[in-house]
Amino acid sequence: MIEETTITRAIAGKYMEKLLKSVESDVCIVGGGPSGLVAAYYLAKNGFDVSLFEKKLSLGGGIWGGGMMFNRVVVQGNALEILDDAGIEYEKYDDTHYVVDAIELASGLTYNAIKAGAAIFNLINVEDVMIRDDRMAGLVINWTAVEISNLHIDPMTVACKAVVDATGHDASVCNIVARKTGKLSLAGEKYMWAEKAEEAVVENTSEVYPGLFVTGMSVAAVYGLPRMGPIFGGMLLSGRKVAELVKEKLRY
Ligand code: 48F
């Protein structure tokens, strides 16, 4: 027999279980766009406790709309391995460019991150950070609905050993750390130049403050790199690289 109150108990109880487990994680990823989801996938697959916080209802960030609402994106050949790992299909356009269905990319990366073991929370906004002894110690979180409705409600906190800023053009976490510590400065994203941007984003994916790593378009915001539009290989490769960097860091 179906009981409405059982449904309530099941949802509330299981959600709390997941949230309580994420009060302390190895890695907190902020933002569920392509770079954050790829980072979550590789870190979880390597056995790390990963919690990912996304402020919007859906995961996938800037993937869904493709280029100008044509829901296809381009990925270059050197990133196909990541699509293969995720079981996402692509079609060759020429020797450099491959075309991917934006919906399949967004949902495929999300599905794989969850299946690898990452705990994903949507509708939660990261509004501040915790720092101890000049090192990232965790995040300050609140419901996005609280932010939108401008309610005066205090947030809560989660602890972790490393934070990944995967918030895209906003570079939200880096901006907070810059403003509150004075130990990081953001050069700001530059004009469109896809070829240069794609390479530079991956090259500059790095730890920018002790325990704070940057991936995806946040890298461009921190290092003053050009933008690239609807080509996503750099985002995928940056996500995989940041997972490697965090893995190395947490080993010691
Ligand atoms: O913007 P987004 O897709 O970031 P990305 O992984 O990829 C960029 C590309 O989509 C595209 C591009 C390159 O081809 O130019 O724009 O760098 O995803 C970032 C996610 O972070 C969420 C935001 O809603 C989005 O889904 N986000 C931003 N700030 C916060 C946040 C925050 N403070 N708390 C939680 N989530």
Structural class by helix and strand composition: alpha/beta
Distance between the termini: 53 Å
Task: Enumerate the distinct ligands.
Answer: ligand 48F
Question: From the coordinates shown, what is the CATH architecture?
Answer: 3-Layer(bba) Sandwich
Radius of gyration: 18 Å
**Mind telling me the CATH superfamily name?**
FAD/NAD(P)-binding domain
Give the ordered list of helices and strands. Answer: HEHEEHEEHEEEHEHHEEHH
Number of contiguous helices: 9
Overall helicity: 40-55%
Q: What is the average per-residue confidence, as pLDDT, rounded to a whole number?
A: 98
How many discrete structural domains? 1
**How many DSSP-defined strands?**
11
- Return the CATH topology: FAD/NAD(P)-binding domain
Biggest pleated-sheet summary:
8 strands, mixed
Poorly predicted runs are none
* Overall geometry: globular
Strand content: 15-25%
Determine and state the CATH class: Alpha Beta
Notes on the structure:
This protein is α/β, with parallel strands linked by helices and 252 residues long. The protein has one domain (24-250): FAD/NAD(P)-binding domain, CATH 3.50.50.60. The chain is built from 9 helices and 11 strands. It has helices at residues 4-21, 34-45, 80-86, 102-116, 144-148, 172-181, 194-204, 217-223, 233-251; strands at residues 24-30, 50-53, 72-76, 91-92, 97-101, 119-121, 124-132, 135-143, 156-165, 206-209, 212-214. Helix 2 (34-45) runs parallel beside helix 4. It is globular, with a radius of gyration of 18 Å. It starts with a helix and ends with a helix. 45% of the residues are buried. The mean pLDDT is 98. The structure holds ligand 48F. Ligand 48F binds at residues 30-36, 53-56, 61-63, 125-126, 166-168, 170, 172, 216-217, 227-228, 230-232, 235.
